[in-house]
Amino acid sequence: MLIEELSRLTLTEVTECYASGRLCPVMVMEATIAQAEAANNSINALYDLQADRCLAEAEASRQRYRTGSSLGLLDGIPVTIKDSIHAAGMHWHHGSAAHGSGVEGMKDAPPTIALKRAGALIFAKTVMSDFGLSSSGVSSSHGIVRNPWGLGWSTGGSSAGAGASLAAGIGMAAVGTDIAGSVRLPASHCGLAALKPTQGLIAHTPPSTVRSAGPMARYAADLEPMLRVLGGVHRDDCYSAPFPAVHAGSDLPRRVTVCLDFGFGPQLEDEVAVVVEQAAQALAELAFEVRFEDRGFDFDAYLPIDDSLKLRGWREYSATAQNFRAAVPSQLVDWLMPASEWGEAQIAEMDKGIARTISGANALLDKADMLLTPVMHLVNFPAGDLGPDPDMPLRHATFTAPFNQSGHPAATICGGFSASGLPIGIQLIGHRFDDIRLVRTATLLEERLRQTRATQMLWPLQPKPLARQPVHGGNGVLV
């Protein structure tokens, strides 16, 4: 079965097969469409699947390879983009029925432009949670996205459909967005690799100082070619930065600080701690200098971030038509509501807290070339929940969200599995604009961990039914 072979290959290996004639883009696109049709009914990850257009584009890619005129790193590679990323002829909902039937894109966003220029085949959009403000697959516009590792478990979010589809063997890579962990959290839930780049390194619209577009893939080795295609300046993003020439050499940073406790947030589950400690041991075996930090921050750095996300969400929600708002999850609305009453004093206090968070993140990186942390404190939670904390949907993003504020690049890989067979992610954080060396370190660590496990990654190409009932966090319904 071709899809099984493709699930074992990196992007570079696939394009090498195209160049040699062993595979062709049309064959791979046909297999991708077939897998989407077979698996998406179970996981609900995709919408706007555009098979005919992509098959025509795949044929054009095949002709380029035949004539030696490939467009480069991603030519003929099937990819998806998140709902929130605009693309001409594809619909935008931002995950929420509050936007009615959605808006058909008239203009490509910078990540879409970059993918098309590189010859990538954007065959579908992926489902996200409402407004991108819960780390789950619960979307009032499309329903619940389900995790192929176990259909009763969450995919994480908000790039939920990107995570679920890749784990199920649909496509070779995806572009999501990340404002508090939204590519890294689903990567952890779904056993994938992902990168939140240095803020501004991947241009996106509307411009933001905290939200980044970021690549997701089955293997860490795929993050570098994705980053090289997506990275760089675009005139519509005033914060976008040139792709750096510095730090692109072969020497890897060697000083790693491991932090299992940021000093705030929920308590770390034992299975997660063990996986991070095993990753630290693997880095030590690879001749990295590893030290442990007892406590990352001396204050709760997440609370001002939570307020900023709340304010952002309230502004979007309150701007929508009232007759569409009833479909938005009531728990999400309840979380947003306090922001409706905030004045200048509350917002100024929030900004002061965020500045302190950024200083704290900078201080952690001052002591090392990289940080190694969990992605989240727990293994997973039920698919119908917005998050494990009913009052704070993103409270479990305490290890990821500070680095959106500080702008540091952060990569996630699968570090291991729970006793129940669910993936557990680990996170590496680097210095700003050191993204290439960060993803190369992540690739080296991923390979070492797989050698240690002495097992091949067996992707859930046929999504797994619920083996046992998940324990509810108390705020969702499993349907």
How does this model look, in words?
The protein has 479 residues and is of the alpha/beta class. It has one domain (2-453): Alpha-Beta Complex (Amidase signature (AS) enzymes), CATH 3.90.1300.10. 35% of the residues lie in helices and 14% in strands.
Q: Radius of gyration in whole Å, from Cα?
A: 21 Å
Supply the number of helical segments: 14
End-to-end CA span: 32 Å
What name does the CATH topology carry?
Amidase signature (AS) enzymes
Largest sheet: 11 strands, mixed
The CATH homology group name:
Amidase signature (AS) domain
What structural category characterises the helix and strand content?
alpha/beta
Q: How are helices and strands ordered from N to C?
A: HHHEHEEEHEEEHEHEEHEHEHHHEHEEH
Strand order of the largest sheet: 1-5-2-8-10-9-14-15-13-11-12
List unreliable stretches of 5+ residues.
Answer: 472-479
Shape: globular
Proportion of residues in helical segments: 25-40%
CATH architecture tag: Alpha-Beta Complex
- CATH class placement: Alpha Beta
Q: Count of DSSP E strands? A: 15
The fraction of residues in strands falls at 5-15%
Structure at a glance:
The chain has 479 residues and is of the alpha/beta class. It has helices spanning 2-7, 11-20, 25-43, 51-66, 110-117, 160-167, 184-190, 223-230, 270-285, 302-318, 330-336, 344-366, 402-406, 435-453, and strands at 46-47, 78-82, 91-92, 103-104, 121-126, 138-139, 143-144, 173-178, 193-196, 212-217, 255-259, 289-293, 370-374, 410-417, 423-430.
